[in-house]
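Re: weekly structure request thread

Next one in the queue (492 aa):
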Amino acid sequence: MSNYFNALPHRLKVQELGKCDFMNNTEFSEGVTQLKGKKIVIIGCGAQGLAQGQNMRDSGLDVAYALRKEAIEGKRASFVNATENGFEVGTFEEMIPKADLVSNLAPDKQHTDVVNKVVPLMKKGACLSYSHGFNIVEEGTKIREDITVVMIAPKSPASEVRAEYLRGFGVPTLIAVHNDNDPNGDGLEIAKAYCVGTGGHKAGVLLSSFVAEVKSDLMGEQTILCGLLQTGSILSFNKMVEKGIDAGYASKLVQYGWEVITEALKIGGITNMMDRLSNPAKIEAFKLAEELKTIMTPLFEKHMDDILSGHFSKTMMEDWANGDKNLLQWRAETGETDFEKTPASEVKINEQEYFDNALLMVAFVKAGVELAYETMTLSGIKEESAYYESLHEAPLIANTIARKKLFEMNRVISDTAEYGCYLFDHACKPLLADFMQKIDTNLIGKNYNDTASNQVDNFELVKVNASIRNHSIEICGAQLRAAMTAMKKIVA
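Done, posted below.
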């Protein structure tokens, strides 16, 4: 991939992609002071809207929800979410004019319509916040000049935004101020206070840009965060069943294996994940990952280029206009896969077994994380942002699969991420057909060490360890994780 960056036809975006700096904990010493006594009104009470609102309320902020009149009258899910959790709820017309900060947490496809309705109702000098800048970057929406526009983007599904906050930690967060909308010069202080309110400052915060957040977010979600986890789940399960492994055991190994494997990744990077394997298994998993990277590199590069060029967003918005025809079809097809329909067995699988019996899954994680990171950084995205959008968010996505398989993963992420996940999955599975032909139960389903030689070439092991530990994502990750002093383990 060494020539990938130079070959990119869309390098005009590079200076915006590179705007991303890690923020020191001392920069959040004022806590939520900037928003104390202010009225925060959240648009939409779906998963992300509810999680952020609960966290901010628990942080001492005044939070309410503005919903469409028909959602209130029809007592739709958003209305039930807000009222059952004790929040004040009202229509746009009732709530927006008195808001000091309006947080737009509606689905991406609704952003333009929501913004067009909300902005005329906002009082002069108020603030509009986003958690994903698709509307600003991909659709080119312009906001009234007297309004401050900021972004606070948790790098996680909503369920983990709430769960990590309750554990006393948080999820990594990107914050940004829209250059065209900071009339009072206080946009950054507002974004920082909001970030503290959701708990993100405990897990690491990157001062970014709207462009960098959107492009890196779209890339990470399509590839390792959702797409490759879906592909790896289906291929791993199907291979085990094909080779005679009990389907219930195979279902459990995949469903819960991602969470166990990626927890080691979150706490100690790829180095720690690979160190959970025996030396012979580590060498084998390394070789598998290298082969996977060779096969998938063109696909990762295509996705990055389609994101930078706007082609991905264009085709997705065409599907929105077509009633989500492709999205709904792909969602239904995922629900009919054998993995999704096979209940996990009650058999006990101990923690180490998830590593020893699933070398293929370890290799999928290593290959996907490194490829996503490499492709993003070569396109101009800064290392810290690429780390969060690949390695650190992968465990947060994996946690959702452990709950209700791929249904849960695709339910709690945005429609934008879900669309990209399916797009990647449908392209990736055919690419891996020949590779999967060579896979046997020693790599997925049974303990690799039972049939492998215990002999290891020391020179080969030294090279493998050096390659793992000296990768840029490991160097960057070690520095970022050093600031995550409140991190809690998930797997007991």
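The chain has 24 helices and nine strands. Confidence is low (pLDDT under 50) at residues 1-6, 8-15.
Next request, please.
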